[in-house]
Design a protein that fits this description.
about 140 residues, alpha+beta, 2 domains, 4-stranded antiparallel beta sheet, 2 helices, about 30% helix
Length: about 140
């Protein structure tokens, strides 16, 4: 019986050691990431080349992005762009406790998205182009 316990313990230790060794060898290959620590100079270089995040715009205030303009509302946000006087909704995202009920994404003279709350009145966000830029009308 004692031999069986010793043999079992030796097998468990050998299997665990082998698994740790294999995972150590394959860890970077499986995840595709380098796990080395960056030095101070490398951190400064990474920070210098990193893109900065735009500050959050106040509620209902639009901001320009490279893909279009972000328009915020209480029901949710849309990103819209203009081509002449035609507007296109590029993306839309409901706020917490809201869902998207209906979307008319364009391109058209006006595009709409309806944000429906769990309870209460829905918010219809209408976007048009004015001066080549998307602007909102909340109803």
């Amino acid at each position: 019986m004692k031999r069986l316990v010793v043999a079992w313990a030796a097998t468990v230790l050998a299997a665990t050691g082998a698994a740790v060794a294999v995972l150590g060898l394959l860890g970077n290959g499986l995840t595709g990431t380098d796990s080395r620590v960056l030095g101070p100079a490398e951190v400064r270089q990474a920070l210098a080349t990193a893109t900065t995040r735009a500050p959050a715009a106040p509620a209902a205030a639009p901001s320009q992005t490279s893909q279009g303009r972000l328009i915020r509302s209480a029901g949710g946000n849309v990103i819209a762009s203009c081509d002449g006087d035609l507007v296109t909704l590029r993306s839309w995202s409901p706020a917490q406790n809201y869902s998207v009920d209906e979307v008319e994404s364009g391109p058209a003279r006006e595009a709409k998205v309806e944000f429906e709350p769990d309870e209460g009145e829905e918010i219809e966000l209408t976007v048009v182009c004015s001066g080549g830029r998307p602007v909102s009308r909340t109803q």
